[in-house]
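In this supplementary section we document a worked example of the pipeline. Step one takes a protein sequence of length 199 as its only input; no multiple sequence alignment statistics are reported here. Step two produces a three-dimensional model, which step three serialises into structure tokens for compact storage. The input and output of this example are shown verbatim.
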Amino acid sequence: MSIHKIMNFETKQAIKNALIIQIEEVGFERVTVKNLASTANINRGTFYLHYKDKFEVMEDLQQELISELESYVKNVQPLEAFQMLKTGQFYPPFVEVIKCFKEHATAFRVILGEQGSPGFSKRLKEVFSNQILDRLSVIGEELQDPEFRQYLQAFLASAILGIIQEWLDRGNEELSVEELANIHFRLLRFLGNLTSMQS
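The serialised model returned by step three reads:
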């Protein structure tokens, strides 16, 4: 990579980091290009070499996070995960997904928060539902029913993201990545056990 490309990359990263800081301080609505440039230690002219406005920075940041998350989620095989859960072992690909959230915890927390972007949650749910549900379709006739599939997709994606969001909001120091992965599968096992309980 040439020095020019490295400098471009570093400037764009500085602008994206500035956006996260500014959203946390004033909320996305009140973010200005002037404040972004100041926080990133660049002038406004340099900002406009890379982005046309704050919306383009937000889109670039979201796309970067989603692409990285997808690269980990695509390795999750639900049936494999449940087999490992039964033996009391952690499922490494899912642990990697949670590590991705931990690595970018501030960005995910801020963009998912009230001052961030309302559409980001939906985009993250799509990553989970698109990647994971397709692999579950091999089990059970119910998954051949398009309406049931749609609601199961919404349920699973909301459940996974809901737990991660709770963890991020609490500061993600309370539970380790492995402990959070374990909580996910304990919850799924608990829901599975509910169906076999007698009244």
